[in-house]
């Protein structure tokens, strides 16, 4: 029998359930739900309770954290189709307790061989959003299935089939749609009109939408998952699925070839390691900018006594924004796929470099982003990625973030395959040399080249204390990911919050340009003081969705982010 080791009393439990219901109905106004729940042995936290349970079932069958992460990843591809995926890519950061070893799996999408630096420009030399937002041309060569395959093959314990099977059953037998998913699918009405295969999979036969409580079955996805179950990654990158994908993409103006699929490789990367106030911070190197940026900003912040400051205070928010501005400036300037461009990661994540960057942090008054560096401006990103965290009974940990880029990606489902393809080519700098104040970046490190991986902001992170996992975290949210992860870490380490409070705490974001602090609405009261310090502010409903685990005295405490939905499971 599963024993859940929760520290809540009965009275607070009822209150907590009430708060949870409130948070689902009014996700933008929640305050912390208080003390984090914990599990004695192992835990999985993701956006979706069904997928988290799939992960925990695998752990109970003898799997390790990697097995659980692979099974959770496949399950989310069925139950959280806006971001969970087979047709996208991501990053898995693994910590193996016995060996004390950290491993990063980079399964980011790659540009097809026929990609060119100017492929998204129109006759006038401007980025053509019709080509670059959705549709067949913006699809990168998917990495997820290869990434999960490599994770399982190299670091898992259980048979591959056991890891794919739960997802296959969910696709075949269906699962019950809840209000969050029903609403999300209804929100895709015009995209479903434009992409009939998308509509075929996610609308009912009569063309209406699934209501909460109804069962969504995905027979074509089940067929694809069967081929993956039986043939491993080859079931996706070769044979029937590959052929269907390539035929449909090419018939509609896309450029992915069978060779692109056959040649796709997930890369094993040496994670970056930094330190912060006696903790060790382990993050992903490029093709994600996540680890570099998080470690660099923590290095800058280390010189300030954050713990003595008030968390929700204009001077604290101002200091964070100043730090973020510098971090995002260096990100835009230096980072790209290190298989193609030279990046001095040791320098960028070093304490001496942070000391020089700190000269650009003004604690009294906002630094001008344009003065800091006039040449580069960033563009907005989509709104669906998903992160989950796993810790097993041996102390192995996995932080995994993966994405289709936008919610539901390119909206393309190749006929008969049942899964959405990403629109990740969007993350390249699309107009070489052209950087403008409306948000285009044209710097060299992240220009399109065949076979190159587009720069990501995904930041799965594991913080170690005494060489053991202490905090496992990450988030979706495009560029805001980096700043969400940064804030979860400082909330725990500097502001001594438990992991649930750290996740619940309202967040801010500054990305150098545009020169504005974006803040969750709960921080609205601080806007006038921030303005007096020279900052521009804007309010957003939510930022990120950071499903995290903190290990304290052996207990796996879960930080479930309710900004989207969220569900933890454990034993
Ligand atoms: O890799 C990246 O940084 C982006 N494609 C992630 C997009 C994203 O997080 C959208 N989500 N909420």
Coarse morphology: globular
**Sheet of most strands:** 7 strands, antiparallel
Query: Structural class of the helices, strands and pairings?
Result: alpha+beta
Residue ranges: pLDDT <50 for 5 or more in a row?
1-29, 377-383
What amount of the residues lies in strands?
15-25%
Give the CA-CA distance, first to last residue.
9 Å
Bound molecules: 6-diazenyl-5-OXO-L-norleucine
Molecular structure report:
The chain is of the alpha+beta class and 571 residues long. The chain is 36% helix and 15% strand. It contains 21 helices and 19 strands. A 7-stranded antiparallel beta sheet has the order 1-18-17-13-12-9-8. Strands 7-4-3-11-10-2-19 form a 7-stranded antiparallel beta sheet, with helices on one face. A 3-stranded mixed beta sheet has the order 14-15-16. Strand 17 and strand 18 form a beta hairpin. Helix 3 runs antiparallel to helix 5. The protein is globular, with a radius of gyration of 22 Å. The N and C termini lie close together (9 Å). The N terminus is likely disordered. The structure holds 6-diazenyl-5-OXO-L-norleucine. 6-diazenyl-5-OXO-L-norleucine binds next to loops.
Write the layout of secondary structure elements.
Layout: H1 10-25, E1 37-39, E2 43-46, H2 49-60, H3 65-79, E3 89-96, E4 101-107, H4 129-132, H5 144-155, H6 160-173, E5 175-176, H7 179-186, H8 189-194, H9 196-202, E6 215-216, H10 219-231, H11 234-237, H12 239-251, H13 258-263, E7 267-269, E8 272-276, E9 279-283, H14 290-301, H15 314-334, H16 345-348, H17 351-357, H18 369-372, E10 385-391, E11 397-403, E12 461-465, E13 468-473, H19 480-493, H20 499-504, E14 508-509, E15 517-520, H21 527-532, E16 537-540, E17 548-552, E18 555-559, E19 567-570
Helix pairs in contact: 2-3, 3-5, 3-6, 6-10, 14-15, 14-17, 14-19
The structure holds 6-diazenyl-5-OXO-L-norleucine.
